[in-house]
């Protein structure tokens, strides 16, 4: 867009070439677009689930970047004694001039111990800490350069081997549901046949309902959207929890180089909708709902945290005020009795 066209964009002209009834606020979206692109975007994604479920591989497949180059894999003995750690990786990626600062928060050690009681605590503490930093920065003097590290989405990996949710899955999602947008996934979906995936999805949906777990809800699409968009939106919603496959290798399938897993009996293609829901997950996470995930983080989860903080601060202030008043009166009575 040239500077001139930006100034004149979409000005309707009458037959004699004059601009008629045109104020110019129709260019507002262009201004917002330019400003946002210049500023760049950020997104923080958390991945959780026990080790070996393919979290790192899926993130690499999603963003086509190797975020876990220097990862040290622990042996069984080390894993037993390991506590849940939080690890953060940040990469700056650029696509067609649009910059994205992507932060991946990994939770190694989650669900790996023999006793997993309250193993979600480290994760909820981390999310709260990010809210606390933001709250402090936002209430401070220099509000211009606030670093926003709030977690916008948590991909929770459910093993494909069980018959539904395990107690640790229920506890984890319930502990996180009011703090972050939880998106449950069926990991390593290539271990299941299509009918097994269908059955497991139904079971998981039933259990999510039964235990009152609040997972990320796709917003309803606007009534003026076109029919094709509405159909895709419905299909996306019906496919949850997404059954995903990840791969770090490129293989040859049907004369094309694709990301996939090569087995003696054939190839599983990560981006083939007939094989898994990877493309659907990528669509909601990056192409259609990234902004909504950020909005809900800011407008619901952070607002809840902020309201709680303010309530606690107000209660504490009342308590100290009352205590000071009591001390003042006690002090006056003491000095009064001393005079007499
Ligand atoms: P993480 O510990 O959860 O980060 O798991 P990794 O991404 O390191 O994967 C553990 C192992 O599972 C590796 O050998 C991967 O190649 C393999 N893996 C990753 N994704 C899949 C998948 O979708 N299907 C299958 N069958 N194996 C996978």
UniProtKB/TrEMBL annotation:
<protein>
    <submittedName>
        <fullName>Septin 5b</fullName>
    </submittedName>
</protein>
<feature type="site" description="Important for dimerization">
    <location>
        <position position="161"/>
    </location>
</feature>
<dbReference type="InterPro" id="IPR030379">
    <property type="entry name" value="G_SEPTIN_dom"/>
</dbReference>
<keyword id="KW-0963">Cytoplasm</keyword>
<dbReference type="GO" id="GO:0005737">
    <property type="term" value="C:cytoplasm"/>
</dbReference>
<dbReference type="Pfam" id="PF00735">
    <property type="entry name" value="Septin"/>
</dbReference>
<keyword id="KW-0132">Cell division</keyword>
<dbReference type="InterPro" id="IPR027417">
    <property type="entry name" value="P-loop_NTPase"/>
</dbReference>
<dbReference type="GO" id="GO:0051301">
    <property type="term" value="P:cell division"/>
</dbReference>
<dbReference type="InterPro" id="IPR016491">
    <property type="entry name" value="Septin"/>
</dbReference>
<feature type="domain" description="Septin-type G">
    <location>
        <begin position="39"/>
        <end position="312"/>
    </location>
</feature>
<keyword id="KW-0131">Cell cycle</keyword>
<comment type="similarity">
    <text>Belongs to the TRAFAC class TrmE-Era-EngA-EngB-Septin-like GTPase superfamily. Septin GTPase family.</text>
</comment>
<feature type="region of interest" description="Disordered">
    <location>
        <begin position="1"/>
        <end position="21"/>
    </location>
</feature>
<dbReference type="GO" id="GO:0005525">
    <property type="term" value="F:GTP binding"/>
</dbReference>
<keyword id="KW-0342">GTP-binding</keyword>
<keyword id="KW-0547">Nucleotide-binding</keyword>
């Amino acid at each position: 867009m040239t500077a001139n066209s930006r100034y004149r964009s979409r000005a309707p002209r009458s037959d004699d070439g004059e601009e008629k009834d045109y104020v110019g606020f129709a260019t507002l979206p262009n201004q917002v677009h330019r400003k946002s692109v210049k500023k760049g975007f950020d997104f923080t994604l958390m991945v959780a689930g026990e080790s070996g479920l393919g979290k790192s591989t899926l993130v690499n497949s999603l963003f086509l970047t190797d975020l876990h180059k220097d990862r040290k894999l622990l042996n069984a003995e080390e894993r037993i004694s390991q506590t849940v750690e939080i690890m953060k990786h940040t990469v700056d990626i650029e696509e067609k001039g649009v910059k994205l600062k992507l932060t991946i928060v990994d939770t190694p050690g989650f669900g790996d111990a023999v006793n997993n009681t309250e193993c979600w605590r480290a994760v909820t503490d981390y999310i709260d800490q990010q809210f606390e930093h933001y709250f402090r920065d936002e209430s401070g003097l220099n509000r211009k350069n606030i670093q926003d590290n709030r977690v916008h989405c948590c991909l929770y990996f459910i093993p494909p081997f069980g018959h539904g949710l395990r107690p640790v899955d229920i506890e984890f999602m319930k502990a996180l549901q009011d703090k972050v947008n939880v998106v449950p996934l069926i990991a390593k979906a290539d271990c299941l046949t299509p009918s097994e995936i269908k059955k497991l999805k139904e079971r998981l949906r039933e259990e999510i309902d039964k235990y009152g777990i609040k997972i990320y809800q796709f917003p309803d699409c606007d009534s003026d959207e076109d029919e094709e968009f509405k159909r895709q939106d419905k299909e996306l919603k019906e496919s949850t929890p997404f059954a995903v496959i990840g791969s770090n290798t490129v293989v040859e399938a049907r004369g094309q180089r694709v990301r996939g897993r090569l087995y003696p009996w054939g190839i599983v293609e990560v981006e083939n909708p007939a094989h898994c829901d990877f493309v659907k997950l990528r669509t909601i996470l990056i192409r259609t709902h990234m902004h909504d995930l950020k909005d809900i983080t800011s407008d619901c989860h952070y607002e809840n945290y902020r309201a709680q903080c303010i309530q606690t601060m107000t209660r504490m202030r009342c308590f100290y005020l009352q205590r000071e008043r009591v001390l003042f009166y006690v002090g006056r009575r003491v000095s009064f009795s001393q005079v007499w």
